[in-house]
Amino acid sequence: MTCELSQTRLHAYFDGELDAMGAAEFERHLESCPDCDTRLAAEEKLRSALAGAQLYTRAPETLRRKLQISLPKAAIPPEVRDPKPSVENSWRWLAIAAMVILSVFLGTQYLQKLNRYSQQQAMAAEIVDAHLRSLQPGHLEDVISTDQHTVKPWFDGKIDFAPPVRDFANDGFPLLGGRLDVIDSRTAAALVYGRRKHLVNVFVEKAQPGDSQDASGELQGYHWVAWQQNGFTFTAVSDTANGDLDQLKQLFLAP
């Protein structure tokens, strides 16, 4: 699950708003919380990208005139109200207008990226929680079989789509069975595979707008990989090596 401190303390720490004691406590927390550490790294990466973008745009003369008209006369410096303003003052107003435009643009881009990041983290938390639930006794499989022709028909009539079920035993990922699960209030088909001594859950859902097409990450020590194919969203999760999940993804993508 998402760490509560990532919502209450992380941004205050990132913006330097915590006192020395609070900052030291949060830094100790970072050593044992991969969720907060990942979120902080993402914030720092985004700030560096914005700082290095060196975006600049020159405002047109018409914008300067519109700003002068819209502002109260008292708010406009005398040198700007002068019918013959100097070149220096003209450029000053253009610079102000450009900064306003740039601030709005960068703020919008930042909020969009932050929203996508938050949605991805929420999805990862749902997937990892479902994987952990499945590891409880009696929850892993509703149908136990290594035969894909047994597992695939089992889903008929239980969900409104036919999940692609394949056995990759020859490639080191034997099919163990399947079950129904719920991810973010949506019913999903869960395919269970083995990988050496590890278990891998592959959640299959009908693709929805906003689903991650190609994404991966780590949460609470579990790796996850998401992709889309033929109108389905696939998400594989396990405590096996991340490279194993990438290999399984490629096996699904292969014709």
Present the secondary structure layout.
Blueprint: H1 5-8, H2 10-14, H3 20-30, H4 34-52, H5 61-70, H6 78-81, H7 87-134, E1 143-144, H8 148-154, E2 175-183, E3 186-195, E4 198-206, E5 214-219, E6 222-229, E7 232-238, H9 242-253
Antiparallel strand pairs: 1-2, 2-3, 3-4, 4-7, 5-6, 6-7
Describe this structure in words.
The protein has helices spanning 5-8, 10-14, 20-30, 34-52, 61-70, 78-81, 87-134, 148-154, 242-253; strands spanning 143-144, 175-183, 186-195, 198-206, 214-219, 222-229, 232-238. With 255 residues, it is an alpha+beta fold. Among the domains are: 5-54, no CATH class; 141-253, Phosphorylase Kinase, domain 1 (2-Layer Sandwich). The chain has a seven-stranded antiparallel β-sheet, sandwiched between helices. Helix 5 (61-70) packs across helix 7. The longest helix has 48 residues, at 87-134. The radius of gyration is 26 Å and the shape is elongated. The model has no long low-confidence stretch (mean pLDDT 79).
